[in-house]
């Protein structure tokens, strides 16, 4: 009679503590991990069921902008290639648009400026928890993909960057719902000036319904693909492949 | 000594209690892990390192966080999965408790519950460790009822809605949530404050369970059967 009582008392006293360390142990189980990681798909499914696919992220007035917009991630790619492009004020920089497209493109900043432009004052939310509000301008990604004649077989758009993580270019990807969202733009201007190096010069992605790490900076190449299997380790982005970040970062 | 045993808690109440308890522990642990990524709180729409923070939080130690060692991605996986468990189990509990009349019978705050004299008497009774009305021992006392109502209908909905307001996807789906809380960083601050309220409730709840006789109380939440104190 004493043993079960003692066992129960230990369980209660140490209950919460055991649960915390227990969490670290059970997540080593592949099944638990798979179930837990399904949360991402559940949130995406629920949110998309609740909202229109073109529902807009909130936009703000100029007087609501952050006085100072901090940088994060790479502050300067620091490679010789990037330094050369930067020294030439990005006159020699080209954005490659390829993959499942009828007409691969190589676009200069002037070419991107010739597309219809969208300017938006939006909030940038880092996965760490901070937010900053800034103004972005550039062509819609959807217009650029249409200009390249994206094929019907495309399912995702992959972004490759000039900055290196672990010796390889940073990469990210989004699906076509976000790629063709009206606020998804290739921004070359921030707060009415050319994008600076800390914020991703000469071009970065804005995908306003997702967290900051999806907004790839220092863009070099945009590729339409039918699967993420061949990209990195197959989970669609540097952080997704290497530290288990959610691919769909809408929450 | 023949003790009177009554059936105090319905199955739905007991099920929700334990699902909710597990979700709360995991959500607070993983939430403190997430807090360590940027331990500053702001009011308003934006807030980052150059902006004024109204609170600089401590770095929460490994024994309090899930996982123990800092890992934002895994903290988020735990947090966002159990956020769904918390929200949908609360919703189910509310619906079932309306249908089985748990809310109307046991949680309805009556005028006499909140009269100054009655509340003062209830405080005195708590201080004397008398938690049950001999006339109706199975009923919740006034302070107990008020704290359950506050947690179930105010604090838990607040923590869920402020959590949803942190999602950039939900901001597009339900922009009114941001207006309700005064911007994303205000929602983040309120989310933290609601967590503190839940943690404080839990501590007081556990202390009172022990004072009221933890074996009887625990059994009643496991099996429903509760021995009426003499």
UniProtKB/TrEMBL annotation, chain A:
PROSITE patterns found in the cross-reference section: PROKAR_LIPOPROTEIN (PS51257)
InterPro entries: OxRdtase_Mopterin-bd_dom, OxRdtase_Mopterin-bd_sf
SUPFAM superfamilies: Oxidoreductase molybdopterin-binding domain
Residues of the Oxidoreductase molybdopterin-binding domain: 91-226
Pfam families registered for this protein in UniProt: Oxidored_molyb (PF00174)
PANTHER family: BLL0505 PROTEIN, PROTEIN-METHIONINE-SULFOXIDE REDUCTASE
Protein name (database record): Molybdopterin-binding protein
Originating species: Sphingomonas endophytica
UniProtKB/TrEMBL annotation, chain B:
PANTHER family given in the database record: CYTOCHROME YDHU-RELATED, NI/FE-HYDROGENASE 1 B-TYPE CYTOCHROME SUBUNIT
Organism (species): Sphingomonas endophytica
Pfam families xref list: Ni_hydr_CYTB (PF01292)
Primary location class: membrane
Transmembrane feature ranges: 15-34, 78-100, 148-170, 190-214
Keywords linked to the UniProt accession: Cell membrane, Electron transport, Heme, Iron, Membrane, Metal-binding, Transmembrane, Transmembrane helix, Transport
Record domain Cytochrome b561 bacterial/Ni-hydrogenase: where: 8-224
GO biological process: respiratory electron transport chain
SUPFAM superfamilies for this protein: Transmembrane di-heme cytochromes
Membrane topology annotation: Multi-pass membrane protein
One term under GO cellular component: plasma membrane
Localization (cell): Cell membrane
Similarity field: Belongs to the HupC/HyaC/HydC family.
Listed InterPro entries: Cyt_b561_bac/Ni-Hgenase, Di-haem_cyt_TM, Hydrogenase_cytochrome, Ni-dep_Hydgase_cyt-B
Annotated protein name in UniProt: HupC
A single GO molecular function term of this UniProt record: iron ion binding
